[in-house]
Amino acid sequence: MSYLICYIFHEPSAAAYPKGAEPLKLTYDGLKNENEWTEAGIALPRFDISKMCGKTFLNPRWVHFGAGNIFRGYIAMLQQLLLEAGKAETGIIAVAPYDDEIINRVYKPYDNLALQVLMNADGSFEKNVAAAVSEGLASGSVFDWTRLNQIFRNPGLQMVSFTITEKGYNLYNTDGTYRPDVQEDITAYQLHPQHVMSQAAALLYTRFKSGKFPLSLVSMDNCAHNGDKLRDTILTIAREWVERKLVEEKFLAYLSDARDIAFPLSMIDKITPRPSKRVQEALIKIGFEANEIMETAKHTFIAPFVNAERPQYLVIEDRFPNGRPPLEAAGVYFTDRETVVKAERMKVTTCLNPLHTALAVFGCLLGYTLIADEMKDPYLGRLVRQIGYDEGMPVVTDPGILKPEAFIAEVIGQRLPNPNIPDTPQRIATDTSQKVGVRFGETIKAYIRQNRDINQLKFIPLVIAAWCRYLLGIDDNGDPMPLSPDPLLEHLTAQVAGITLGAPQPEKLRPILSDTSIFGISLYDAGLGTRIENYFSELTACEGAVYQTLQKYLPLTGDN
């Protein structure tokens, strides 16, 4: 079967570029005006895009699920470095599994190109046209689903990677039953499944039927043991199909044999926030046409440009039964499983993610809209230092390839305070119920394992109490506050229903704080439940109590 790839070209809005100037068009034809791009300070790809697309179409090597900002601003640029260095000939096929608008609004109209804008702490921007994506596919499209099956039949496909966030691997409702889309997918083998994990399983079945070709599936999401989580969810779906005799038992054996299908662990780190209006304004001034910031019907914030910080880290377990791109030449660390686990644990449980979540929760309560502004607040700045240095670092794991002391110093001293990174506490607060078990629960469990005095933990319990306070949907001024999306939001808010400022009712927190599926441990069994309840009572005592509590426990002089 042959395919015709069609593009829908974007028409710029009126006055989207300086009067009298020709716009910089983010299309293949637009890139031909090289001098204009150079004069605008934008670096163009140094490889033949057309040749790359042709070779990728016939001999795909890399498919990526999750076509959002971290993919376009970081992962795709890694392959671009290989293409420019002559170390690769093919690009990446990007797949949007949930939100077709991403493909229809920022991929196809711009020939799958994007503009990467690195935001330096000194206020300067480094701009590069990203062109390593050969195709943008929406897996919900019948046409694109057919194309995906064609790709997975190709023996040369080496890697399928994922950035779909923690909730992308979730198959279950809060009561432990399958989600409706998952239930439908497993009840009858679907020619076109709905859930991304069902889609991955179905595509692997296509590969199994085509010749049992090997492949590596790499989760690049910020969750503990991400490769194991990916493997477990796909195997869960496959087992359901086998039990219903919808697929052969040998398919399960194929997925379970690491010589055929591997699920490496990884650790990824690069802040890629929503598109920045400041970047948008700067691009308009230089005549860059594709400057529209959009919100899809599914509340994805996208633009033809991607703004990101400069620091970036990617560590991957080196298990690729069908080979892989030489991404070490682009700065990726390939190592053994134990080292990846240590790197992931260092970042996610100590040096970055817990600090981010602390700022997110308190930032929402205190009305902040920029992480960098929070770092200017003396109490919040001290809070993240206490959580990172005083409570996390005593049990941090050292991966060897990255030094925890240098990593956390960069995070606190350079990355979080960067005023040019438009990252919001509201974005970071998304899916917090899926994060707290790793970001804080692992440190709590480490204290217990190492027989450390659990009473040394003062500020991690304070953040957990603040998260419970956040669930009230009332800010520190006593005004209604929107809550960020979370798969457990309805369940959690029901637990704290009826609590008001001045009437804390801390006993209502017990179902939450004892929920091992959230924290990985009962916080009462850990000896912290009562402390968190007491903090919660202080945080809800009255209007302004959140900031007063920070001032009480984080005095600017004297000991805590």
Describe this structure in words.
With 560 residues, the chain is α/β, with parallel strands linked by helices. Helix content is 42%, strand content 11%. The strands form 4 sheets. A 6-stranded parallel beta sheet has the order 6-3-2-7-8-9, with helices on both faces. Strand 11 (294-295) and strand 12 (301-302) form a beta hairpin. Residues 1-20 have low confidence and may be disordered.
Identify the overall geometry.
globular
- Indicate the percent of residues in helices: 40-55%
Largest sheet: 6 strands, parallel
Unreliable runs = 1-20
Mean pLDDT reading: 93
Number of helices: 24
Query: Rg, please?
Result: 24 Å
Based on DSSP secondary structure assignment, what is the total number of beta strands? 15
The rounded distance between the terminal residues' Cα atoms is: 69 Å
What are the salient characteristics of this protein?
42% helix; 560 residues; disordered N terminus; 15 strands; 4-stranded mixed sheet; alpha/beta; 6-stranded parallel sheet
In short:
With 560 residues, the chain is of the alpha/beta class. It has helices spanning 34-39, 49-58, 69-84, 100-107, 142-152, 180-187, 196-211, 226-243, 249-256, 277-285, 337-351, 353-366, 371-376, 378-392, 404-415, 425-428, 436-439, 441-449, 459-470, 489-495, 510-513, 516-519, 529-539, 545-553, and strands spanning 42-43, 62-65, 92-96, 114-119, 125-130, 133-138, 159-162, 215-219, 261-262, 266-269, 294-295, 301-302, 305-308, 313-317, 333-335.
